[in-house]
Automatic annotation (TrEMBL):
EC number: 2.1.1.72
Protein name in UniProt: site-specific DNA-methyltransferase (adenine-specific)
Keyword Iron-sulfur: no
PANTHER family hit by this protein: SLR6095 PROTEIN, TYPE I RESTRICTION ENZYME MJAVIII METHYLASE SUBUNIT
Listed Pfam families: HsdM_N, N6_Mtase
Domain N6 adenine-specific DNA methyltransferase N-terminal: 10-117
Catalyzed reactions per annotation: a 2'-deoxyadenosine in DNA + S-adenosyl-L-methionine = an N(6)-methyl-2'-deoxyadenosine in DNA + S-adenosyl-L-homocysteine + H(+)
MF GO annotations: DNA binding; N-methyltransferase activity; site-specific DNA-methyltransferase (adenine-specific) activity
Family (UniProt): Belongs to the N(4)/N(6)-methyltransferase family.
InterPro entries from the UniProt entry: D12N6_MeTrfase_N, DNA_Adenine_Mtase, DNA_methylase_A-5, Restrct_endonuc_T1M, SAM-dependent_MTases_sf, T1MK-like_N_sf
GO biological process: DNA restriction-modification system; methylation
Lineage: Bacteria, Pseudomonadati, Spirochaetota, Spirochaetia, Leptospirales
Domain DNA methylase adenine-specific: 135-445
Length: 801
């Protein structure tokens, strides 16, 4: 039985809880990822002839299971499992599984490691069929873990990971997918955990030869494991200082050159020159460019990467914004890079994306091909496209797609992107600070003094809404009439603006047009979605579906196609991808399955469809029962309202129900009965008795109503759960594709249409209110009020001066 991706992620993350103790994330990630590594290679390569990974006898995950509960479990994992695997595959620096300072001592260590092994022992975590074409569930689980580890590691220890969103942009803008050669090489001189290189391999869609060097010993080991986990066991990852001791050299001792490079070096690395002789650099990295400042290594890493590229090579590097405008030696290097034509473009990113720092960064795209003829740079300011994610910012799917589209197609977009001639850059003394070339600031909403003095809405403000009038040319005539030259006034009461817009025939026609376009797209892709099967590759599936939706909405004015695209991608990430992976693994029959959540005592807490939520089954097959429950709820709500009214009228300190309230100031039937018994024979308490009896009648009816609702809901749930078993394949396909996926997307498209009308309504109301009362009317009103006040003061014997 398949496991949902989200369930896989949560079960792996649960393994971290077994180890946290006194360790921070940068430490316990090593233990969890090593366990994942051993589990994966055991599932993937055990018994396979000519395997690129050797699993020595007695060193598989099954052998690790046999160590559970043993007093020597930590030492045994080191010596019997990791030691042989490391020697056989040239992987060193595994974490110490017998470290009492991190894992505890005695039974504490035994329990932790036993529980950790138990989590990976889950039969659903079977990686024997893990695919290498970008669809591997393991690779995404790894990304999930790395993001969480980096988030919890803090600024000082989160640099081992480049956010996958940024990695994807870099892989796509260097053009690796366009190459038809089979001997492509890609290099990362500051490889970290290897995520950047793997994104390049994914983007290429074919096997590349990957090379990486990483200074940190433990992180280099992690990168080697990462390559194997992502089915790139032949990747060459070496440990060492790239600048002082580069380990990838040609036969002649010069730097080996590659087709592509990607890099996320440590920002402004202060000790980059340790062990480096920049003046007499044997690798000629600084020749014809200049020597970077001794206390800032940003350009040192960039020049190393540039020197490591072939004459037609391309690459991308993440650097702080300072490299774009800092002066002195760095200004000279920047000037020489631009003059040689090596910089193809710059992508300015939002602040607070990276785990090692909160400062904004940029991607420099390097391209040596046709460098001699390059006369312009393409610059993007993408600093405003992101979403908050905890204490970090994160690029959304729409932000990634927009950046890649705009850069690769070199599209100029106001306030976002520009082709900047080198001549203009020369005039600005080779300063590449993005705001010098792209003004991304929102236009100031200028106040019109004449309109404030005499009233009327400036025609220029109305004309600025031209994108709306192009779609609905008659709408402006329904809303405005000329007041005087250059100024308009509302033709209708301010309160009717929204109603007028929504009722406008042209606006209604625009809405129908959007609905028709979406319906045609939906009909075109219904069969595509219903044909998901064993051979479907989920990532290629969503790529085709989302690209088609993006293309469909690319020509509709007012609607941002990337907003519509984001709705689909959000839905994909939240539930759709789980659905598709389940269908691929188990077939559409998984739609008949029910998930049951139990408490610790085995009592059922919750039951729901594994693929199809109960809410959909109820809505489609049990409308009558749902309507009955709605009627019961309406009756109950009426009773609740009457009880609230009674409490408001008689529940105060002097009210007839005052003695029926608890210490928390709420009416209690128990207290009401007790009070009724106390005053039963009191002839002076008739009104109080009547009020209490009325309250108890309503309270009894409410209780009975709640009982009926609960019974009806229970009966409905029983019918729904029974219905799953009888669902036919075609019914399941319709319920999933049309009722779960497309219904939600249709509502999302409608919400985008609503936003259009809300923006227009809001702007017109804002303008109307801004100039509604001219200054002369305000002064006149002030004068009138002042006169009235003075008159009242005089009558009281006061004179205001």
């Amino acid at each position: 039985m398949a496991i949902k991706k989200s369930e896989l992620y949560s079960s792996l993350w649960a393994s971290c809880d077994e180890l946290r103790g006194g360790m921070d994330a940068s430490q316990y990630k090593d233990y969890v990822l090593v366990m994942l590594f051993v589990k994966y290679i055991s599932d993937r390569y055990s018994g396979e002839k000519f395997s690129p990974i050797v699993i020595p006898k007695g060193a598989s995950f099954q052998d690790m299971i046999a160590l559970k509960g043993k007093k020597t479990i930590g030492d045994d994992i080191n010596k019997k499992i990791l030691g042989p695997i490391g020697e056989a595959n040239q992987i060193s620096d595994f974490p110490d599984f017998n470290d009492v300072n991190k894992l505890g001592s005695g039974q504490d260590m035994v329990d932790k490691l036993t529980n950790l092994i138990g989590i990976f022992e889950n039969p659903a975590l079977n990686f024997s069929n893990n695919r290498a074409d970008g669809d591997d569930i393991l690779g995404d689980a790894y990304e999930y873990l790395m993001r969480h580890f980096a988030t919890e590691s803090g600024k000082s220890k989160g640099q081992f990971y480049t956010p996958s969103e940024v990695s994807r942009i870099m892989a796509k803008v260097i053009g690796v997918s366009a190459s038809n050669r089979s001997d492509i090489t890609a290099y990362d001189p500051t490889a970290g955990s290897g995520s950047l290189l793997l994104k390049v391999a994914d983007e290429a869609g074919k096997k590349l030869t990957l090379y990486g060097q990483e200074m940190d010993v433990a992180t280099a080991s992690l990168a080697r494991m990462n390559m194997i986990l992502h089915d790139n066991p032949s990747a060459l990852i070496r440990q060492g200082n790239t600048l002082s001791n580069p380990l990838f050299l040609s036969d002649k001792g010069s730097l080996k050159q590659f087709d592509y490079f990607v890099s996320n070096p440590p920002f402004s690395f202060k000790s980059w020159s340790n062990g480096v002789d920049p003046v007499n650099d044997p690798y000629e990295r600084f020749k014809n460019f200049g020597i970077p400042p001794s206390k800032n290594g940003d350009f040192a890493f960039l020049l190393h990467a540039v020197r490591s590229l072939k004459s037609t090579g391309k690459g991308a590097i993440i650097l702080p914004h300072g490299v774009l405008f800092r002066g002195n030696a760095e200004a000279e290097i920047r000037k020489n890079l631009i003059q040689k034509g090596y910089i193809k473009g710059i992508i300015g990113l939002p602040a607070n994306l990276f785990y090692g720092t909160g400062i904004p960064a940029c991607i420099l795209v390097i391209d040596k091909e046709k460098a001699e003829t390059r006369q312009e740079l393409f610059i993007i300011d993408a600093s405003k496209g992101f979403i908050k994610d905890g204490n970090k910012n994160r690029l959304r799917e729409q932000d990634i797609h927009k950046i890649v589209d705009i850069f690769n197609k070199q599209i100029e977009l106001p306030k976002y992107s520009r082709r900047v001639p080198v001549s203009e850059i020369r005039e600005k003394e080779y300063n590449l600070n993005i705001p010098r070339y792209i003004d991304s600031q929102e236009e100031e909403d200028i106040q019109d003094i004449e309109a404030h003095l005499q009233g009327g809405i400036p025609k220029s403000d109305i004309d600025a809404l031209h994108s709306y009038w192009e779609i609905c040319p008659g709408l402006s005539y329904s809303l405005f009439v000329e007041d005087r030259k250059g100024y308009m006034k509302l033709k209708i009461p301010k309160e009717e603006i929204k109603k007028t817009i929504f009722a406008n025939p042209e606006f209604l026609e625009f809405g129908k047009r959007v609905g028709t376009i979406f319906s045609k797209w939906k009909e075109e892709y219904l069969e595509f979605c219903k044909s998901i099967g064993k051979t479907t590759k989920p990532k290629l599936f969503i790529q085709e579906l989302s690209e088609s939706l993006l293309d469909t909405f690319s020509s509709i004015p007012l609607l941002d196609k990337y907003d519509v695209y984001q709705h689909l991608m959000t839905h994909w990430l939240e539930s759709m991808q789980d659905d598709v992976y389940l269908i691929v693994e188990d077939g559409w029959k998984v739609g008949t399955e029910i998930e049951t959540e139990l408490d610790k005592k085995g009592k059922i807490l919750r039951q729901d469809g594994k693929l199809i939520p109960k809410s959909i089954i109820g809505r489609i097959f049990f409308q009558e029962e749902l309507s009955h429950i709605e009627i019961l709820e309406s009756e109950r709500d009426t009773l609740v309202q009457k009880l609230e009214e009674l409490e408001e009228e008689q529940g105060g300190e002097e009210g007839l129900l005052a003695e029926c309230k608890t210490e928390k100031d709420s009416l209690s039937p128990k207290l009401a009965l007790a009070r009724l018994k106390t005053i039963h024979s009191d002839p002076d308490a008739k009104e109080e008795k009547h009020a209490i009896e009325t309250y108890l009648q309503f309270a009894d009816k409410e209780s009975e109503s709640n009982r009926k609702i609960k019974n009806a809901e229970k009966e409905l749930e029983t019918k729904i759960l029974a219905k799953y078993k009888s669902l036919k394949t075609e019914e399941i396909k319709t319920l999933v594709v049309e009722e779960k996926w497309f219904r939600q997307l249709s509502e999302d498209v409608q919400s985008e249409q609503n936003r259009i009308s809300q923006r227009l309504t809001g702007r017109i109301q804002e303008l109307a209110e801004r100039y509604e009362t001219p200054v002369k009317d305000i002064l006149s009103e002030v004068e009138s009020l002042e006169s009235k006040v003075n008159s009242h003061l005089e009558k009281m014997g006061f004179v205001w001066k």
